[in-house]
Hints:
The complex is a heterodimer.
Chain A: E1 4-7, E2 10-13, E3 19-25, E4 31-37, E5 44-49, E6 56-57, E7 64-68, E8 74-78, E9 87-94, E10 106-108, E11 112-116
Parallel strand pairs in A: 2-11
Antiparallel strand pairs in A: 1-3, 3-8, 4-5, 4-9, 5-6, 7-8, 9-10, 9-11
Chain B: E1 4-7, E2 10-14, E3 19-25, E4 30-38, E5 45-51, E6 56-59, E7 62-67, E8 72-77, E9 86-94, E10 99-101, E11 105-110
Parallel strand pairs in B: 2-11
Antiparallel strand pairs in B: 1-3, 3-8, 4-5, 4-9, 6-7, 7-8, 9-10, 9-11
Amino acid sequence: NAGVTQTPKFQVLKTGQSMTLQCAQDMNHNSMYWYRQDPGMGLRLIYYSASEGTTDKGEVPNGYNVSRLNKREFSLRLESAAPSQTSVYFCASRLAFSSGGNLYEQYFGPGTRLTVT
Amino acid sequence: KNQVEQSPQSLIILEGKNCTLQCNYTVSPFSNLRWYKQDTGRGPVSLTIMTFSENTKSNGRYTATLDADTKQSSLHITASQLSDSASYICVVAHNNNDMRFGAGTRLTVKP
């Protein structure tokens, strides 16, 4: 049981390049999330998927797109990377999203450290 | 604006000592408050989750307290160990599942 896995661990891009960050979970969770973590700031939600087949914007969605490929996998795409997107990206999952599941544990992956030059 | 403020930003203590980390929030309406531990280069790991009706919750040497009236929480670490060196993040959830993360307190435990 690997939990939440992310690839790659590290990536360096040039401005304007595109890439996709991959995330998978093996806990049969319904909800998945993408966050970014910047120095001196709390994690901020980029996009989330409350359940398979749905995606919604979070607090900072500009410059990103997501795909919930199936129940296990949730990818984050940068179409044209910018230096402001240099950050550490975390994927997370939770059993349920609804208010009834509000107390469910949220499990995080190990992160992808992205640098855009 | 809904905010979660943590103090201190960083803290250095000697192994075996106790410490208390603070979290003040303005998130409303409030659903629950979580404390996470984040080791360097790793993702956050949950320590405790408390609803508004809970005052205290423990997880081993970690004890979280919550005062929903004053919108304050604290995380107390007893008999610190070197492995406690990490960032500790306070997270407050809205009723609509929106979670707001504090910037964290960086704890260093020295031998």
